[in-house]
Amino acid sequence: MTASAFARDFSIEATRPSASEIAQLGEILPLGTSVYVTAIPKAAPDETVTAAAALRRAGLEPVIHIAARRLTSTDMLQDFLRRLTGEAGGRHLLVIGGDVDAAGPYADALALIQKGELRRYGIEEIGIGAYPEGHPRIPTARLEASLDEKIASATAQGLRVNIATQFAFSGEHIIAWLKQLRSSGIKNRVGIGLAGPTSVPALIRFAKRCGVSTSLRGLASGMATSLVGNVGPDRIIEMLSGSQHELGEAHLHYFSFGGVVQTARYACDVAQAGAGQKAAANS
After folding, report:
1. What digits encode the pLDDT tens for the residues 8-48?
2. Are 282 and 230 in contact (CB under 8 A)?
3. SS3 of 257, please?
4. What is the 3 state secondary structure string of 153-171?
5. Total-model pTM
6. Which residues contact 15 (CB under 8 A, 6 or more apart)?
7. Per-residue pLDDT tens for 89-132?
8. Which domains are assigned to the chain?
9. How far apart are CA 190 and CA 118, in angstroms?
10. Which residues make Cβ contacts (< 8 Å) with residue 166, sequence separation at least 6?
11. Are 228 and 201 in contact (CB under 8 A)?
């Protein structure tokens, strides 16, 4: 499969998208594209529901991050889910723990999946996080066990389950991780996290903030001579497309560090022209 064919199936993340950005996304992205709205500590539920509803009106599929440890009560969760499904037609969540101490009854993402009664409030599918390069504070063995537990618990409740990975800069690490995942018997669809086009210094800053360290040194040394201008994950997409038969059901999931509109244009350009060509968003 060519890189462009492989790249036609993608989702994108947006951090506090404005009304203007959502309108532009509706014009740029194919109808039904999943747009993930990240969990921001200071973002009120009203803001999140409003963004989800606007994405729905724009012909896109809102996928809302929900951070288990930031929920202060079961009432808070239930009210949010009622509004999300009722006002925005939301049916899909990305359930994460949230890197804070628990503010309420949910100690982690697994507890929310087990106790949150998501199906009762209209949720049909959840995404769960995974880390191809490991997590800075969680041992690999625990990550693997937790992934199994989350999938089993959600599936038992009738929820569809997909996996969304943290972004990584090494195609080799991503492919090796996916091979191990498939060999362990996990066949769920995987959104492969990639950093959309932005400057190398910005990528390094976000990588440090998010705990993506394994391939960070290679990123910095490999691009040390081109710190000016934007770079995209073209090489990684080429590698993934060449190994697609080993990846199982997978698609690209773009983090929009350089701006969600720019990332959307890049993703569409790659899908149309192939990853080997310079994306318009980088020009």
Report:
1. 999 999 999 999 999 999 999 999 999 999 988 878 889 99
2. yes
3. coil
4. HHHHCCCEEEEEECCCCCH
5. 0.89
6. 37, 38, 40, 256, 260
7. 999 999 999 878 899 999 999 999 999 999 999 999 999 999 99
8. 3-272 (3.20.20.220)
9. 21
10. 129, 130, 131, 132, 133, 135, 193, 210, 211, 212
11. no
